[in-house]
Amino acid sequence: MKKTHFLTILLGATALAGCETFTMDSKTADIVLDDEPFIEAVYLSDADLDGPEVVDTPVAQAPLVARTFGPGISPKELAGAGETETLKPYQAIERANASAAIEPSPANYMNAIQIYPYTRGALYQVYTAPEQVTDIALQPGEELMSVSAGDTVRWVLGDTVSGAGDHAQVHILVKPIQAGLKTNLIITTSRRAYHLELHAFRETYMAAVSWRYSDQPLVRRSPVAKTSGEKSAASLGLQLDRLRFRYEISGDKPHWRPSRVFDDGRKVYIQFPARLDQGEAPPLFVVGRDGKSQLVNYRMRDNYYVVDRLFAMAELRLGEKNQDVVRIERNDLQMASR
Q: pLDDT at position 222, please?
């Protein structure tokens, strides 16, 4: 009887142990992994095995160029730099200007006139001197559109015309007030544009500059000549109803003393005797309220000074020791102050 009970207890303990072990295994397996996909073997030939070889090639980085601006480069740097060399912006500009500059040559002189070959975009070098007028002559029949200079205070600019009709030729007159100056000049006409660099020396100067043109035809149709009234209106662009004659002229009486002065509300026109360009033209100074005088922007057109602003008082001075002074003063300002 005892043996029977012992066997029953042993079997019950074994069954309990088996149930406990099954419960622990079911808790540890939290996920079920999928089986690996089946891949069927495929036969590959030798040609398929010998594919293109892949080579890792490092990418070359472009050199960094510092955008540094500085003073002008020397001719040695210009000559030593190669064509493929990366230039700084100011170096590229100076190299282009240096290569575009055209200097006067003895072979291009006809008497005292330097005849440059015209090339679009060239920088023509013109050498001037104080108390000397340099004549820049354009092509006959070419109509002047505009004249622009970098420095119009220390350079005296003017324009006149020689000839008439289809033989009329525009002349740009240039004169510096002192040596050691440098500026640029741009002339636009009905046919082309001129780019010049002006240099002022103490004595050396060019009397006249002109051009020869490779595209100039052998025969040109003569344009219809304008009347004198149309030519005057086109050259000055004045409207008679806007002219105001309100200036008085006083002082010395040299041969170049103006005959009259008037304005159109924007510019002042000083009329001189005919052929003022044959002698030395007096510079114009504007007198301020403090009594100090300063140079003003103006240009010569025929026998006129065209001043680009209005003024209350100005003086024309010429000479050093025995200086001639002619004063121009508005008379309507004195009447308005009374």
A: 47
